[in-house]
Design a protein that fits this description.
Distance between the termini: 33 Å
Number of helices: 8
Largest sheet: 5 strands, antiparallel
Shape: globular
Strand order of the largest sheet: 1-2-3-5-4
InterPro entries: BRO_N_domain
Order of helices and strands: EEEHHHEEHHHHH
Protein name: Bro-N domain-containing protein
Radius of gyration: 21 Å
Strand content: 15-25%
Structural class: alpha+beta
Organism: Dyadobacter arcticus
Length: 184
């Protein structure tokens, strides 16, 4: 994937796909600007970063710098965060625009706790999500079966001593399509 600009309510958020870690990275200053409407988001971020560090927030320590294209067209170093770090930072921004994110995070957190207590809820949520995206029930059932087959297969490989990583990837790529055809 290449560098992309993400839109948030018609405002641009610079982002970058980190191929090595398979994660999106987002410009923190852009998120701060959107959520706070600060005239100087760099200063806002600098102050917020100091406050969070003083509170012992590890997220700030783990943010990295990445060169991204600035408004003037030049490549400039900017602090970036992955999705998890960004969601944690949003929780620390006192702004009415951040409140919907905070409410959503509380709802998702509550759902995940419920799913820990009753794992069947996870399957129900996945089915509802796929239906909302327009997938047919037949497609959803096929998808759930393929997940089950993949889980059985990887469990068997683990039982036989196959280590995670490249060995799993190679076996999945070569064996899983064949197994799916025979099981379904």
């Amino acid at each position: 994937m290449e560098n992309k600009i993400k839109l948030f309510n018609q405002q641009k958020i610079r982002s970058h796909w980190d191929q090595e870690n398979e994660k999106w990275l987002f410009s923190i200053v852009d998120i701060v600007m959107v959520l706070t409407e600060s005239s100087n988001p760099q200063v806002y971020w600098r102050v917020l970063k100091k406050r969070l560090a003083a509170e012992g927030n590890e997220t700030v320590t783990n943010c990295n710098g990445l060169k991204m294209e600035a408004a003037d067209g030049k490549m400039r170093l900017t602090d970036v965060a992955d999705t998890e770090q960004m969601l944690r930072l949003i929780q620390s921004i006192p702004s009415p625009k951040a409140e919907p994110f905070k409410q959503w995070l509380a709802k998702v957190g509550s759902q995940r706790i419920e799913e820990t207590e009753n794992p069947e809820l996870t399957i129900d949520r996945a089915m509802q999500t796929y239906l909302q995206k327009g997938y047919s029930k037949e497609w959803i059932n096929q998808r759930l079966k393929s997940i089950e087959v993949r889980k059985e297969l990887t469990d068997e490989w683990e039982n036989r001593g196959v280590r995670a990583g490249n060995e799993f990837a190679t076996l999945r790529r070569n064996c899983l399509p064949l197994l799916m055809k025979t099981k379904l």
